[in-house]
């Protein structure tokens, strides 16, 4: 039986009829060839192997950070830390800042399409309250009065959470998502909810319902996905930070394409309660920001256990940034040169960006060695399989009743997952366990890994990116960060991908800070 025939046969018991057009689309997008790769890989896995559900035994606990937190002095004025310092010193008021953010949004969003919902009236009311509180010496937190944005995958009380689909246009939230609540507790002024690909299931901004999000550096190019609007809003200075999610690249690739910083912490470090899931064992929540120090600040605010999300309830030390400027002398850095695919990991420009980051660390006293990580090729296949199987499980009720309310790309991705046979999810978790065990041995040689985040140039507007270098890290659950290191010959940002062992975000951020200081930050596009 062909894979296409198997797909059709598997859908019949669910009462789902697939069209010839969708079968052809699934084949053209290569989804069935990924299934063939999956079955090739899992055929070598012993059936008696315990599967990996990312449980308490899966991610070893790091020792707590013992260095006191020291924030950089005199942060740039256009960063989160910089503007917060100005607000708290009285040099700026939240009202001025919020009015400027809303004006910038009005001026730029017709070019970007970054916002799903603008909350101007509420934001101004919150800014007036923050102004009065700060004038009275009441400081609620480090984001007090700072304009921020929220990916429209997170619930906000009384507002719709569309998840990028009109199917959810009437989905009015009764509570704030935990990460939204933590923004509010820190005093943030939320100016709007940002656009994303349909149900966050694309590495691009492609969305047939609400349109794609343009890249701030070139509006004929894509902002990346799925946290597309969040990346564009932060890169252009509309918001100082924005919430995002990352299931297979969705914080890191948009950040890379838009020339900002995106951190995906260790799986379970941040809560996803109140966020629409894509794939429970791959989903990560976090923030997109303009500097490494801002990334550290946001993780310190967002991280921590949450009774609403059992993934966060492990007995791990709380995240503490330590001293970002503590240096990297003696750090062992692995520059990845082989992903096991038998092909170059990326084009010359992307590989060059990774090399520039490694060179910056070497100049600061780190030891750099090139080494392969051949598990990456299999991890991308297993990660894609897990994403599809978990997404199809979540969406099955709608697939049975509202199949053609999905856009073609989303519909075909979900349908393709139904071609996997019985037991495929368990086999995927067995493969994940073996690959995680093998991959983790790399940290006996190095402390930090560096590689490219994308194999080639930023795609055209509405064209999905290739997340093959990003999703393996979701499958592993390790922390990873992208930051800009250069501009390419086409004027687009080039980024490096830094990866650390579980729970070692402080080390990851310290290394990224060194790279940022050496390579510099980029000015806001569209100024």
Automatic annotation (TrEMBL):
InterPro entries associated with the record: Amidase, Amidase_CS, Amidase_dom, AS_sf
Source organism, top-level taxon: Bacteria
Keywords: Transferase
UniProt entry tagged with the keyword Transferase: yes
Residues of the Amidase domain: 96-509
Cited Pfam families: Amidase
Entry GO MF terms: transferase activity
Claim: Transcription regulation is one of the keywords in the record: no
SUPFAM superfamilies: Amidase signature (AS) enzymes
Protein name: Asp-tRNA(Asn)/Glu-tRNA(Gln) amidotransferase GatCAB subunit A
């Amino acid at each position: 039986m062909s894979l296409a025939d198997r797909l059709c046969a598997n859908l019949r018991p669910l009462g789902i009829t697939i069209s010839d057009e969708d079968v052809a689309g699934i084949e053209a997008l290569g989804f069935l060839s990924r299934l063939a790769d999956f079955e090739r890989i899992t055929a070598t896995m012993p059936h008696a192997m315990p599967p990996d559900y990312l449980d308490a035994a899966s991610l070893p606990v790091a020792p707590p950070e013992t260095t006191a937190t020291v924030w950089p002095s005199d942060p740039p004025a256009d960063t989160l830390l910089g503007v917060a310092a100005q607000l708290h010193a009285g040099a700026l008021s939240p009202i001025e800042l919020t009015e400027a953010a809303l004006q910038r949004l009005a001026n730029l969003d017709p070019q970007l399409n970054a916002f799903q919902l603008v909350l101007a009236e509420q934001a101004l009311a919150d800014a007036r309250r923050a102004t009065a509180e700060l004038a009275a010496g009441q400081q609620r937190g480090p984001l007090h009065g700072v304009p921020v944005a929220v990916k429209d995958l997170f619930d906000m009380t009384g507002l719709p959470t569309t998840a990028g689909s009109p199917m959810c246009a009437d989905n009015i939230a009764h509570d704030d998502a935990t990460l939204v609540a933590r923004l509010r507790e820190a005093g943030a002024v939320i100016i709007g909810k940002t656009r994303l690909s349909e149900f966050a299931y694309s590495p691009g901004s492609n969305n047939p319902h609400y349109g794609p999000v343009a890249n701030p550096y070139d509006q004929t190019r894509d902002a990346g996905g799925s946290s597309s609007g969040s990346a564009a809003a932060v890169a252009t200075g509309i918001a100082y930070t924005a919430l995002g999610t990352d299931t297979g690249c969705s914080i890191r690739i948009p950040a890379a394409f838009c020339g900002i910083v995106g951190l995906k912490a260790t799986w379970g470090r941040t809560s996803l309660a109140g966020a629409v899931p894509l794939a429970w064992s791959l989903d990560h929540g976090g923030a997109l920001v303009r500097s490494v120090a801002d990334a550290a600040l946001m993780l310190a605010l967002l991280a921590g256990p949450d009774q609403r999300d059992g993934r966060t309830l492990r007995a791990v030390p709380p995240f503490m940034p330590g001293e970002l400027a503590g240096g990297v002398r003696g750090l062992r850095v692995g520059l990845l040169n082989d992903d096991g695919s038998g092909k170059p990991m990326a084009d010359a420009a992307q590989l060059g960006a990774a090399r520039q980051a490694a060179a910056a660390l070497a100049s600061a006293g780190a030891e750099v060695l090139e080494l392969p990580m051949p598990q990456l090729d299999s991890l991308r296949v297993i990660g894609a399989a897990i994403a599809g199987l978990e997404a199809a499980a979540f969406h099955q009720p709608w697939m049975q009743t509202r199949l053609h309310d999905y856009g073609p790309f989303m519909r075909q991705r979900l349908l393709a997952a139904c071609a996997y046979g019985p037991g495929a999810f368990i086999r995927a978790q067995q493969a994940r366990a073996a690959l995680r065990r093998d991959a983790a041995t790399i940290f006996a040689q190095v402390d930090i890994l560096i590689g490219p985040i994308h194999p080639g140039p930023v795609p055209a507007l509405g064209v999905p990116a290739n997340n093959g270098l990003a999703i393996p890290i979701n499958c592993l659950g390790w922390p990873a960060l992208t930051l800009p290191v250069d501009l390419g010959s086409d004027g687009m940002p080039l980024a490096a991908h830094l990866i650390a062992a579980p729970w070692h975000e402080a080390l990851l951020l310290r290394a990224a800070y060194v790279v940022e200081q050496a390579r510099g930050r980029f000015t806001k596009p569209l100024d």
